[in-house]
Write a structure and sequence with these properties.
366 residues; alpha+beta; Hypothetical Oxidoreductase Yiak, Chain: A, domain 1; binds nicotinamide-adenine-dinucleotide; seven-stranded mixed beta sheet; three-stranded antiparallel beta sheet
Length: 366
């Protein structure tokens, strides 16, 4: 089947219209669509429109995620805040939380905001990027449905728990380390399932500790506790898997203990066999560079470090070294010019949404 592409603005509008039809207020639908589109534009295909129907639309229809987001401030100090998202739209909650952290950092040098009772917020890099664009270092993380097994365990316990840093530089794009603390996150497994391809060896293990590569089966078995994603570094101690396990645990602790939110299996989103709120927790930190040094000087040092890394000796068979955020920036340029590729199964879901919601929207492939 030939690949179809969609212009970014059009894809964003489609997502906005869908969420609007499901009761998400216009301004909030815009925010949600922008976060999802940011993923699609940067080549993070696991976290954009491919999640629209299976995650957001489904959870809204099930009534376990609220279309109208009401964020409550539970506690607040000059540099800190604790928010309750009341199961609203995760992207709206997270944007507000990082916005508040930035505001506090602007006044006092640092800001940290934690959230409980939230829902899936998409790519963590969007929020770390908000801070980087404001001349700050952004750090954020989120817990998620149980997926990663602890070192020497086989039961999925921790979420894929992204730990994400955005750091401004003197280049056209920030340093952006935005990834899960598992070797692969759930969305990548979903992409393999969509494409009907086996996954690379040893991203996932079964109850006996053997590697599994059947993506669709793994997705079903993760929720049932019969399969687990491996932490960064892999199984056991040989590849340093305990480091990924440790970082995933750090994210779980920071996402749940400060906000006194749910954790581990409390985030499954299913109770007594029925859909239930995910009750996710997040944390957002903004560190204002101007409180430490001149912003331009910081950016120049950051840029110099990255350029020196890229210019270092290449491994045999490789002619380029990247720094984090670079590939996404290159893909952003490409996709702005060429459009966003839409997988056949995603295209089908978009057509289903148009039909089910009675939308008057034309796709480029109509
Ligand atoms: N909300 C959630 O619950 C949740 C959970 C897990 C992941 N996520 C999101 O999923 C997205 C993808 O996560 P992932 O774990 O699949 O990421 P990944 O494994 O694709 O890694 C991406 C990161 O690695 C960097 N990178 C890639 N190749 C590189 C190279 N050769 N040299 C240097 N840096 C390189 C990228 O610039 C980027 O920062 C992220 O945006 C993350 O926030 C969200």
């Amino acid at each position: 089947m030939s690949e179809v592409r969609m212009e970014a603005g059009e894809l964003g509008r489609f997502m906005e219209v869908v969420l609007g039809r499901l009761g998400v207020p216009e301004a909030d639908a815009k925010v949600c669509a922008e976060v999802l589109l940011a993923a699609d534009l940067r080549g993070i295909d696991s976290h954009g429109v491919s999640r629209l129907k299976p995650i957001y639309v489904t959870r809204l229809r099930q009534g376990v995620q609220q279309a109208v987001t009401k964020v409550e401030v539970l506690r607040e100090g000059p540099t800190t805040a604790v928010l309750d998202g009341h199961h609203g739209m995760g992207m709206v909650i997270a944007s507000q939380a990082m916005g508040l952290a930035i505001e506090k950092a602007r006044k006092f040098g640092m800001g940290m905001v934690v959230v409980k009772n939230s829902t899936h917020f998409g790519i963590a890099g969007y929020y770390a990027g908000m801070a980087a664009a404001a001349g700050m270092v952004g750090l954020c993380g989120s817990n998620a449905r149980p997926a990663i097994a602890p070192t020497f365990g086989t039961q999925p316990m921790l979420g894929t728990n992204p730990l994400t840093f955005g750091i401004p530089t003197d280049e056209e794009f920030p340093f952006m380390l935005d990834c899960a603390t598992s070797i692969a996150q759930r969305g990548k497994v979903e992409l393999y399932a969509r494409k009907g391809r086996p996954m690379p060896e040893c991203w996932v293990m079964d109850e006996e500790g053997h590697c599994r590569t059947d993506a669709a089966g793994v997705l079903a078995d993760l929720g049932a506790g019969r399969a687990a994603l491996l932490p960064l570094g892999g199984a056991g101690e040989k590849g340093g898997g305990y480091k990924g396990y440790g970082y995933a645990t750090v994210v779980e602790l920071l996402s749940a203990a400060f906000s006194q939110g749910a954790f581990l299996w409390g985030l499954l989103g299913v109770e007594d066999g029925k859909p239930a709120p995910n009750r996710l927790g997040h944390f957002f930190l903004a560190m204002d560079v101007a409180a430490f040094t001149e912003v331009d000087a910081f950016k120049a040092t950051a840029g110099a470090i990255l350029r020196e890394l890229r210019a270092s000796r290449k491994a045999p068979g490789h002619n380029r070294i990247y720094t984090a955020g670079e590939k996404e920036y290159l893909e952003l340029q490409r996709r702005l010019a060429e459009g966003i590729p839409v997988l056949p199964s995603v295209k089908q879901e978009m057509e289903e949404l148009r039909r089910e919601l009675g939308l008057e929207f034309s796709f480029p492939w109509d």
